[in-house]
Design brief:
Helix 3 crosses helix 11. It is globular, with a radius of gyration of 18 Å. It is an all-alpha fold and about 280 residues long. The chain has twelve helices and no strands.
Length: about 280
């Protein structure tokens, strides 16, 4: 892992000694995350991130394609996370809501996100609410159940674990970044790096390697194929902001065609599928 993550961490969950410079870089990335008006003062911390990242380093997270590409991937991932946890307010300004926990509960207090059609596979637990939690927010009982199965944590019965354990929140988010949600579709990791073999249909749908298609994988028509909407622009802005902060330079983010998914056809339209 490169950039703000220190050295070889191929034996999770043991993490090597955290060096001051790397911690400072993380603090600089998210300087307002512990401000009094943030939603999660003291929650997001550097050690939790590198502990979670260490688990996925052997799978290529931040280690694929050389040092520069690794740094770009970390910026892309954290750009997504920064946008999602700041509730969409501000565009990479380091404002007071940067990296606070943003729960859909606050926006739709009557919505528990329980889908009874999954009652035989991922039945809703009594009293549980499956609103958006985490570094890349998880919604709906079936997503909590599926991610919990892979992480070997009972998130279906205890979705609150995601908001109580920062390492678990990061681990779930990196798993989502690294894992395809459907057969014959890339993960966000594969889409961003360009290791996915894009098809003729992808080309016709304006999908290709880069940050834009990574957003498409994660959010579908919630961010893509809708023109230059705020949800997409905020993520792009965060990504470029972090490239600058890490010393990579925003010019390494690619052309607008690579960065944007404004004209892309969504992989999984919201009318036919749900995503976390």
């Amino acid at each position: 892992m490169v950039g703000i993550v220190e050295g070889d961490m191929s034996n999770p969950p043991e993490v090597k000694k955290v060096k001051g410079k790397k911690t400072y870089q993380f603090e600089n990335f998210f300087s307002k995350r512990n401000s009094p008006v943030a939603h999660a003062v003291g929650f997001w911390d550097y050690r939790s991130f590198i502990t979670a990242a260490a688990i996925y380093e052997p799978m290529g997270f931040g280690t694929t394609g050389g040092k520069l590409m690794g740094m770009k991937e970390i910026c892309a991932f954290l750009g997504i996370v920064g946008s999602q946890t700041s509730c969409g307010y501000g565009v990479a300004t380091g404002g007071p809501l940067a990296w606070g926990l943003c729960y859909n509960r606050e926006m739709s207090p009557s919505q528990s996100y329980c889908d009874e059609s999954f009652k035989y596979t991922y039945p809703c637990a009594p009293g549980a609410e499956y609103y958006g939690r985490g570094a890349i927010p998880i919604y709906w009982n079936y997503n909590y159940g599926m991610i919990g199965d892979y992480l070997k944590v009972d998130l279906l019965n205890h979705p609150e674990y995601i908001e109580q354990n920062a390492t678990l929140a990061f681990q779930a988010a990196i798993w989502r970044w690294m894992t395809p949600m459907k057969k014959n579709q890339p993960s966000a990791h594969e889409a961003f790096l360009g290791t996915w073999k894009f098809t003729k249909n992808d080309t016709l749908s304006h999908r290709g390697p880069g940050f834009g298609t990574a957003m498409n994988v994660l959010f579908g028509d919630g961010a893509c194929g809708q023109g230059a909407i705020d949800s997409m622009n905020n993520m792009i802005s965060e990504f470029l902001y972090y490239l600058d902060l890490l010393g990579v330079g925003r010019e390494q983010g690619g052309t607008n065609e690579v960065l944007s998914c404004a004209e892309q056809k969504a992989y999984n339209p919201s009318s036919s599928t749900a995503s976390s």
